[in-house]
């Protein structure tokens, strides 16, 4: 079961990027293009959003996994960096993979991840501790969407799942 | 927490894959110092991203220098050359449009 669903993630990503299925528009503007466009337009934003971070591991995943900072205060249109820290507490190399979600769900469409550690396998040696950065951008259009009125907090949650354990 | 929603089982807002792919892990801790400076700045600045932008820029530049990130123009990542100081973004952009 895990094997099937694990294989689905990279396929899902390639499928989404190729076809635009899943809420993306046909020729999707990249985040970089959006950043440059707003810079040229002179878009100014004022509203401070507090982005908080959650970290979880699935049952049987012997990693300590925590956000490195509890929050980052950012305005829409500002790219921002955040970190998680993971440590393999077991005595065997463990490969994990993460998924994430953004809440409130209606704000998720404005939360763009420019770079992150998700959707790929990550292998930690026994005792290894590693930083996991996320570089993100809240679309400036968040600020002018009336549905986002009153939303001043966004939560980014990651969960790590165990994919494999090396037997020595 | 949707325990069953492991890989794309998220009903509602589906995760959108990142634009330029993934940050490879910094197993050799080559950019640890830059990370620590950034985190330290956040802790002393009320966690305001704007104040610590020069440190996040330095961190990404470190990654690019060590082949831990695809080399990109910093402007398309939202950094202007004035992000080495604390000039406001609005001043940056106004200057850019005129120039």
Automatic annotation (TrEMBL), chain A:
One of its GO terms (molecular function) is copper ion binding. It is a single-pass membrane protein. The keyword Nuclease does not apply. The keyword Transferase does not apply. One of its GO terms (cellular component) is mitochondrial inner membrane. It is found in: Mitochondrion inner membrane. Keywords: Membrane, Transmembrane, Transmembrane helix. PANTHER family: CYTOCHROME C OXIDASE ASSEMBLY PROTEIN COX11, MITOCHONDRIAL-RELATED, CYTOCHROME C OXIDASE ASSEMBLY PROTEIN COX11-RELATED. Exerts its effect at some terminal stage of cytochrome c oxidase synthesis, probably by being involved in the insertion of the copper B into subunit I. This is Cytochrome c oxidase assembly protein COX11, mitochondrial. It comes from Ambrosia artemisiifolia.
From TrEMBL, chain B:
InterPro entries: CHCH (IPR010625). Residues 31-65 form the CHCH domain. Keywords: Disulfide bond. The keyword Disulfide bond applies. PANTHER family: CYTOCHROME C OXIDASE 19-1 (PTHR47565:SF2). This is CHCH domain-containing protein. It comes from Ambrosia artemisiifolia (Common ragweed). The lineage of its organism: Eukaryota, Viridiplantae, Streptophyta, Embryophyta, Tracheophyta.
């Amino acid at each position: 079961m895990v094997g099937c669903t694990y294989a689905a993630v990279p396929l899902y990503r390639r499928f989404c990027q190729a076809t635009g299925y899943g809420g993306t528009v046909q020729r999707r503007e990249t985040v970089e293009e959006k950043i440059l466009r707003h810079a040229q337009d002179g878009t100014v934003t004022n509203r401070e959003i507090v982005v908080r971070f959650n970290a979880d591991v699935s049952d049987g995943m012997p990693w300590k996994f925590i956000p490195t900072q509890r929050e980052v205060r950012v305005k829409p249109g500002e790219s921002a960096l955040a970190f998680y820290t993971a440590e393999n507490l077991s005595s065997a190399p463990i490969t994990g993979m993460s998924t994430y979600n953004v809440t409130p769900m209606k704000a998720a469409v404005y939360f763009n991840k420019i770079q992150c550690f998700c959707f790929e396998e990550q292998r930690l040696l026994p005792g290894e501790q590693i930083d996991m950065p996320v570089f993100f951008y809240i679309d400036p259009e968040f600020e002018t969407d009336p549905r986002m009125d009153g939303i001043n907090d966004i939560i980014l949650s990651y969960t790590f799942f165990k994919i494999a354990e090396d037997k020595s | 927490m949707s325990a069953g929603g492991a890989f794309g089982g998220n009903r509602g807002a589906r995760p959108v894959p990142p634009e330029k792919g993934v940050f490879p892990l910094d197993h050799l801790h080559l950019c640890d110092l830059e990370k620590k400076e950034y985190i330290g700045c956040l802790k002393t600045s009320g966690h305001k991203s704007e104040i610590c932008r020069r440190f996040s820029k330095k961190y990404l530049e470190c990654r690019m220098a060590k082949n831990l990130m695809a080399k990109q123009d910093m402007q398309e990542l939202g950094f202007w050359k004035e992000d080495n100081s604390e000039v406001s973004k609005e001043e940056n952009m106004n200057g850019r449009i005129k120039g």
